[in-house]
Amino acid sequence: MIAVLKPNATKEQIEKLTKWLEDRGLKVNLSQGEFYTILGLIGDVSKVDTDLLEGLDMVDSVKRISEPFKAANRKFHPDDTVIEVGTPTAGIKIGGSNFHIIAGPCSVESPEQILDIAKSVKAAGATILRGGAFKPRTSPYDFQGMRSDGLELLLEAKKQTGMPIITEIMNVTHLPLFENVDIIQVGARNMQNFELLKELGTIKTPVLLKRGLANTLQELLMSAEYIMAGGNHNVILCERGIRTFETYTRNTLDLSAIPVLAELTHLPVIVDPSHASGMARLVEPMSLAAVAAGAHGLMIEVHNDPPNARCDGAQSLTPEQFAETVTKVNKIRKAVEA
């Protein structure tokens, strides 16, 4: 349920109403826009007399929400959520009218490799560095990442380049290692690891939540709800392709998810064209299509030596290919904004 307050509602009135609702066991999510203030009510709303609430002078209207996701629902929060990444001086904000490109290797392999790639993607226009330290692999015999050592190398690259970093968490017990990570990524395989999501709800670090291989958009939003219900509203959604009957590409990039999510939620949506296609030559056209569809950003895998990469070399761009893609992406952005 949401209560839309009139523009002339005072701070004291809002605080008094909020306390009255909380005393009835409801969680109140306050969203203040340019013209209206909205109170999102989460819990057993049957305890609230709707007629009484709507009859208050400060209340413009009361509406029930049928969707199971509440905090992530745009009806609760009409304005786009804008998430600040890194230090305030970095000036990196994801969501709204902002656009950012996250780039880097699938996995951290050596000090020289991650630093070389970090410098090249930053020069080309990337603002956030990605790199896998803990790697979920289908085969137990494949490279599983450098783990905590990889995290240290990522942090060193961050120190030398000034780029915020994003890396994937696989287990809740690893969370203390991620204290200085700027964005924590939850991969497709962990999208419904609810115990992990609950724990990520207790911190304030932004979380990038990837859509599962065969999950619906509602299921993605319900996973985001787990994080937000714990108090962490800094959630970024990521469309990375879903598994369909098509086998030519690694996955099928669901571009329709971008505008649909824009209708359903206020959370920013970025696209990972690398995992979606699994082919380096398809990353550029899928990136351009994602920008045209309204994505708030891209996550692109870049490696300085793809044929010898220890993980996902086939879908990784070289630094030169990445620079060319960024140039074209910027042209599409200008065309869309015109």
Descriptive report:
With 338 residues, this protein is of the alpha/beta class. The chain is built from 10 helices and 14 strands. The chain has an 8-stranded parallel beta barrel with strand order 7-8-9-10-11-12-13-14, surrounded by 5 helices. A 4-stranded antiparallel sheet has the order 2-3-1-4. Strands 5-6 form a two-stranded antiparallel sheet. Helix 5 links the parallel strand 10 and strand 11.
Topology of this structure?
Blueprint: E1 2-5, H1 11-22, E2 27-32, E3 37-42, H2 50-54, E4 59-63, E5 83-85, E6 92-94, E7 100-104, H3 111-124, E8 128-130, H4 148-161, E9 165-169, E10 183-186, H5 194-200, E11 207-210, H6 217-229, E12 235-239, H7 257-264, E13 269-271, H8 273-277, H9 280-293, E14 297-301, H10 319-337
Parallel strand pairs: 7-8, 7-14, 8-9, 9-10, 10-11, 11-12, 12-13, 13-14
Antiparallel strand pairs: 1-3, 1-4, 2-3, 5-6
Helix pairs in contact: 3-4, 3-10, 5-6, 9-10
Give a short summary of the structure.
The chain has 338 residues and is of the alpha/beta class. The protein has helices at 11-22, 50-54, 111-124, 148-161, 194-200, 217-229, 257-264, 273-277, 280-293, 319-337, and strands at residues 2-5, 27-32, 37-42, 59-63, 83-85, 92-94, 100-104, 128-130, 165-169, 183-186, 207-210, 235-239, 269-271, 297-301. The protein has an 8-stranded parallel β-barrel, surrounded by 5 helices.
